[in-house]
Amino acid sequence: MVMVRGTLDFVLPEALEAREPPEARGLARDQVRLLVSYRENDGVVHARFDELPRFLRAGDLLVVNVSATLPAALTATRSDGSEIALHLSTQLDGPTWVVEARKTRVNERERVALPGDGKVTFIRPYRGSWRLWLARLELPEPSLAYLHRWGKPIAYPYVRQEWPLEAYQMVYASRPGSAEMPSAGRAFSAAVMNGLRLKGVGIAEIVLHTGVSSLEKDEPPYEEWYEVSQETVDAVLATKAAGGRVIAVGTTVVRALESSVGESGELIASSGWTELLITPERGVRFVDGLLTGFHEPRASHLAMLEAIARRDHLRRTYGAALEAGYLWHEFGDLHLIL
Q: Would you list the DSSP string of 99-113?
């Protein structure tokens, strides 16, 4: 494994790409593998996710993202009758969305048909992106109902068959709005949540609606809607005052908390659009640990991980994960950084 462009670069063997949910591999969702790493001594423990409570302490706080995944993939038909895959990313206001036409070029003012008499008009490229567009949707019913009628979960080529929307939801998801699953929380089960509560670990919530990612080109994250409540702020501050650790479940939680900052740098309740890119130079203010999946080589999220853990620590842990055959992607294994 070598380092380039400030992020981890490594070869991910195809055999380590999780191609289906763990349930299809004969496991419960909470039986995926868990690599636990300790920053202060570079220690690594190989475990299973349903053992999570034993690695946390009474007084710790887990912060989870309760955004639920939308069936945001649609099939659109062009004027010449050809079909394109259309991914809805972010609803900006009413009929205006950020969308991605997968692996094809579209033109300004081009209009395509959607199932059930829906229509999409491409307005202009979104913020200079080569793949994202501002578009106007004309739908015969409210967007959430329409997507549940005609849409499917967004999936990438390493997933070899279709899986129902339930396979892309967290047990605690309650606010529909994410184009793609905030997958760090997928392995949680009711049993694990109960075990955490019995251990004395608190659970707080944020909302961050994720947009589409891209495996074809590295791009920094773009604006996403987030909400951090006063209840969550109070829980974070109380945890820190009592000497507990704040553990973010996923990079989306880190982005939301680190975006919710007052003029003096304090954590505040807020909501809005965030464009925050967390780097090692910026660092993090409110997070003491992170539960996350394993990220693609050179992915922008690796910069966020470097803001929480040293680069050499990530080098060691990713090397250990590759050597031990951990699985990547949304249906794969998890990494707890403490």
A: EEETTS---TT-EEE
Closest-CA residue to 208 (of 273, 282, 126, 289): 273
The 10s digit of each residue's pLDDT in 239-248 is: 999 999 999 9
CA distances (Å), origin 266, targets 61, 92, 192, 256: 18, 28, 31, 14
State which residues form the domain around 135. 73-150
- For 25-131, where are the E strands, in sequence order? 33-38, 43-48, 61-65, 67-69, 73-77, 83-93, 96-101, 111-114, 118-125
Q: List all residues 6 or more positions away from 278 whose beta carbon is below 8 Å from its beta carbon.
A: 254, 255, 258, 284, 303, 304, 307
Residue 19 maps to which CATH number? 3.40.1780.10
Distance CA 115, CA 250 (A): 34
Is the same domain home to 209 and 332?
yes
Token match 């829906």: residue?
118
**Contact criterion met (CB below 8 Å) for 22 and 322:** no
Q: How far apart are CA 153 and CA 179, in angstroms?
A: 8
Average pLDDT over every residue of 24-49: 97
State pTM to two decimals: 0.93
* Domain's final residue, options 150, 173, 200: 150
Residues 242 and 106 in one domain: no
In angstroms, the CA 74 to CA 77 distance is: 10
Cβ atoms of residues 152 and 113 within 8 Å: no
